[in-house]
């Protein structure tokens, strides 16, 4: 078994996933980055290069979390390369918008396939490999929208509520194994997923504002920085205290859960 610890992160090429990978790399971990993007794409290559400047090894793998064969190959390659998987962050996700009565089957299926079933598939392989070594931390990224309803986010809310249920079930199943699993539930985050016209329109509909650009939206609406979430993810993945609980939801909510 390698001496350096290893963190595997889905959706690792950019956004939250990139920030999580950098946090672990800066603190002595090697990292496995799984993403839909090709490792030779500009964004993915830039992430790998930034990680490597910390002295960490970065294994970049193109992976579709909706395909079992891709996920099986991802974990096999990670295990064969490093011989251990200490932390898995199930971060990959997508979002779409629409009132419940407007949604199509395809819209619903897309988000469920990635955000819920993809997280289950990530957790499945994380548990299989971590049980071999007798320890590990699994961190599922959900959302405050998985803790209350949000208009026009039925698909996302369904998926993220499901992630919380998955976490609690897996925590029960992994009792006594040395593996813990918890969920981080962030509110709105400054990531490329929010820097689209459709997201700005969603915020306008939600708040009654008339923002023209995501930059204007960021200036006026409270958003988390990705580093805020990475600090929590790293703490869950490494601290002694975070090894003392499992099946919990941690809300990074900017106070929204108290409103």
TrEMBL record:
The keyword Metal-binding does not apply. Keywords: Oxidoreductase. The keyword tRNA-binding does not apply. GO terms for biological process: monocarboxylic acid metabolic process. It comes from the Bacteria. Pfam families: adh_short. Gene3D superfamilies: NAD(P)-binding Rossmann-like Domain. One of its GO terms (molecular function) is oxidoreductase activity. Residues 5-187 form the Ketoreductase domain. Its EC number is 1.1.1.-. InterPro entries: KR_dom, NAD(P)-bd_dom_sf, Sc_DH/Rdtase_CS, SDR, SDR_fam. It is an enzyme of class 1 (oxidoreductase). Belongs to the short-chain dehydrogenases/reductases (SDR) family. This is Short-chain dehydrogenase. The lineage of its organism: Bacteria, Bacillati, Actinomycetota, Actinomycetes, Bifidobacteriales.
